[in-house]
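Lay summary

Proteins are chains of building blocks that fold into shapes. Our project writes down both the chain and a compact code for its shape. Here are two examples, one after the other.
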Amino acid sequence: MKWNWGWNIVLVLGLFMTMIVVMVVKSVQTKVDLVTQDYYSDEIAYQEQIDKVENAENLEGSFTWKRVEGGIEILFPEALDGENFKGTAFLYRPSDKNLDSELTIDGLTDNTLFISSENLIAGKWTVKVDGVSGDKKYYFEQRIKL
């Protein structure tokens, strides 16, 4: 058997087909979790969500986070009345819904919220904070990578 350009074509096609089969098998095995189970009813109430985001954006200052010893601190805008802020913080893990958790917020000290690292593993997270301060509703969202 002599090696010529015909065998090169057969080899390239064989490698290409192998790559396609591997990609199909990997994509079928990838777990995909829905963001929410009740997607359609959540979409109907989305205008209220838009108003909450707008209220948060109109505040002076920014919603950020920083890593501290023992966890992370979520920093709220200075203009927010943190002592009267009530709501929930939802920690969303896109790759595994079993790691998602929810915290109740009943007032903030120095406009910060501490989240212990015992429940957080390294990777991508989205922190979603929904709450009320006074008569205004707010929604903050921050993506973090630990």
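And here is the second example, written the same way.
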Amino acid sequence: MRKGIKIIHVHFLVSHKNYYFGSVRAVFKKFSEETIGCNESYLRHQLTEEGNKHLTKKVLVIRSSLIR
């Protein structure tokens, strides 16, 4: 089975804005821990496999893959 490119989807619950990243590290280059609601290490641990999700009061973060 062919794997897609890893995508980290960040959805802001109040503003309904969506951002897409290639890594957890890239998320924290754009947004602070306070904005995301956790630190980089914790989020990386939560998103170890495709389909994993992390929900806070501010954001929903989903790890998925881009199929080309």
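What can we say about the second shape? Strands lie at 5-12, 18-21, 53-55, 59-66.
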